[in-house]
Amino acid sequence: MLTFILRRVLALIPLLFIVSVIVYGLILIVPGDPAITLAGGEEATNERIEEVQKELGLDRPFLVRYGEWVGNAAQLDFGRSLYSDLPITEEIAERFPKTLQIAGGALAFGLLVGIPLGIISGIRPRSVSDRAVVFITSAAIAIPTFWLALILILQLAVYRNILPSRGFVPFSESPAQWFEHMILPWITLGTLTAATIARQLRGALSDTMGSDHIRTSRSVGLPPVKVVGKHALKNSSAPVLTVVGLQIAYLLGGTVVVEQIFGIAGLGSYVLTAINRKDFPAMQGAVMFIALITVVVNLIVDISYALLNPKVRVE
Questions:
Q1: In this predicted model, what pLDDT tens digit does every residue of 232-252 receive, in sequence order?
Q2: Cystine design at 137: which of 16, 195, 215, 310 (Cβ 3.0–4.6 Å)?
Q3: What is the Cα Rg of the chain in Å?
Q4: Closest CA to 287 of 9, 103, 26
């Protein structure tokens, strides 16, 4: 097991290197020059633009700048924001807990809804309940996140005034208000996750229910609940873990849209603001941090998968 973990950790090094090159290379493909913006926009003189470029270090070769940046990023030092002049790491630390609460709650919603739907659908393939679940999950996957958010806001906040439509209340101030403000973002972001988990579990459970050892368990008179809970679900859980790992990237990336719609000042809205302002250091630092979190979470998922499936460790 230790050898397996070591192999996985070593495999992350080239992956993180490629990600860092792509993230830092954003400065070359994103239109606009931060030096021009900070120098005064279209009215800025060439002398002033060159002066700002020297202050930002943009006059140096790309590889030199990248080498310095990746060395600092390895120590979680992403530099300073061009606009606030504050350390980007501090700004990320301030905003990331809100993003984590949104993504974590959405994942919990996805598991709580997706697993029961997957079980209902998977234990009786081609039944009425199975067709209903397939239809519901197909619709959930097809609907865009922003459109679902607007429907929920209109139905639950504007028309019926059941839940607040925007804002964030810290848990320490009021747990009840925190929960109320989180419900709509959780449902919006977690619906696709729930549908994906349900479909993956349905496929794995459907195959498992037709296997020989499940037929044997049924033939010896084991109760259906025990057959599904103790045997079928255990063998079907490993593929679901893989889906959960892949969903982490979607959930963290999806907060960009969700935070903007629901007026939550998290890391997702921070990235969007940095893009609009052409604040490249902030944009690069935030995206690299999200990529790092995603990689670490997927490493944990891989280890959990290996614990459930010994064949993976051997391979």
A1: 777 777 778 888 888 988 999
A2: 195
A3: 24
A4: 26
Q: DSSP string of 118-142? A: HHHHHSSTTSHHHHHHHHHHHHHHH
Q: Report d(CA 307, CA 4) in Å as an integer.
A: 11
DSSP E strands in the chain: the ranges are none
pLDDT tens digits for range 27-39: 667 666 667 766 6
CA distance linking residue 280 with residue 33, whole number of Å: 9
Q: How far is CA 192 from CA 140, 216, 247, 250, in A?
A: 6, 36, 9, 9
Per the model's pLDDT, the better-predicted residue between 193 and 215 turns out to be 193
φ and ψ at 80, to 5 degrees?
A: -120, 150
**Residue 129 identity (one-letter amino acid):** S
Give whichever of 208-212, 224-228, 245-249, 250-254 has the largest mean pLDDT: 250-254
Q: How far apart are CA 149 and CA 157, in angstroms?
A: 11
Neighbours of 273 (CB within 10 A): 16
With tokens 């996957």, the residue in question is 141
What does the domain layout of the chain look like in residue ranges? 95-314
- The CATH homologous superfamily for domain 95-314 is MetI-like (1.10.3720.10)
User: pTM of the prediction?
Assistant: 0.86
Banded pLDDT at 70 (limits 50, 70, 90): very high
For 167, the token pair is 């804002």
- Segment 104-129 shows an average pLDDT of 92
Contact 207, 187 (CB under 8 A): no
Q: What is the 3-state secondary structure (H, E, C) of 29-69?
A: HCCCCHHHHHHCHHHCCHHHHHHHHHHHCCCCCHHHHHHHH
